[in-house]
Specification:
This protein is of the alpha+beta class. 23% of the residues lie in helices and 21% in strands. Strands 4-11-10-8-12 form a five-stranded mixed beta sheet, with helices on one face. It has a three-stranded antiparallel beta sheet with strand order 1-6-14. It has a two-stranded antiparallel ribbon with strand order 2-3. A hairpin with a 2-residue loop joins strand 2 and strand 3. It starts with 17 loop residues before the first helix and ends with a strand. It comes from Streptomyces tibetensis. This is DUF5701 family protein. InterPro entries: DUF5701.
Length: 220
Amino acid sequence: MPDTTPDPSTVLPALPALSAQAERLIELGVHEIGGLSAEEVRAFAAKAGGDGDGALLAVHPDRAPASALTPLLRRDGKPGFVVVDMPDVDEFAPSGLDLPDAPLYLVTGIDRGDHLANWSPDEALPALTKEDRTPLVLTEGIHWVLQQPEALERNLCFMTIGSRLRKPNGTVDARTPALWISNGTGRDGRERRNAPKVGWCWWNNRHTWLGFASTTGRRG
């Protein structure tokens, strides 16, 4: 792995209050995607109250898959998109971690993992485990950027290696999901330059501009 000693990740502004996050999800129609009423989302946020300060409000991926959430992302007025060679994006499921068995839950202590930039997923995962952290799943990363667009910056984007795809033969696909900003090249198309992008990277590859987003815990 890289020889450099990791520095702390860039400190981002605090997430909005849970009540504001609830309203944001309702405004975007995420509650309808998840088969929830606006009242249910508001009630969950209100019940969590002060105990949820600094946490991210997320809809379970079984209710709101990545393919439905990604187009809701915005940057420079451009919608988010999934790369064309990831038509199976919703088949990337939580791996090595358990999500709360609830339609709505909280993700605490989120960090972008800038200090792990230029590490491979294979190198970063044990480092996160040593820090008592677990990687974000893809839908949690999308929820984060929906609530806090500045979490996605040029040269400071992130992987969500908590989501992996298991093949029919039982092996794990070498692709790992990530969120970054399109350069408008190749099959992305020039019209998508600067748009938020869900794509993938190889499990053993390093990228100087991708950290590893993680959390200290989740609760329903």
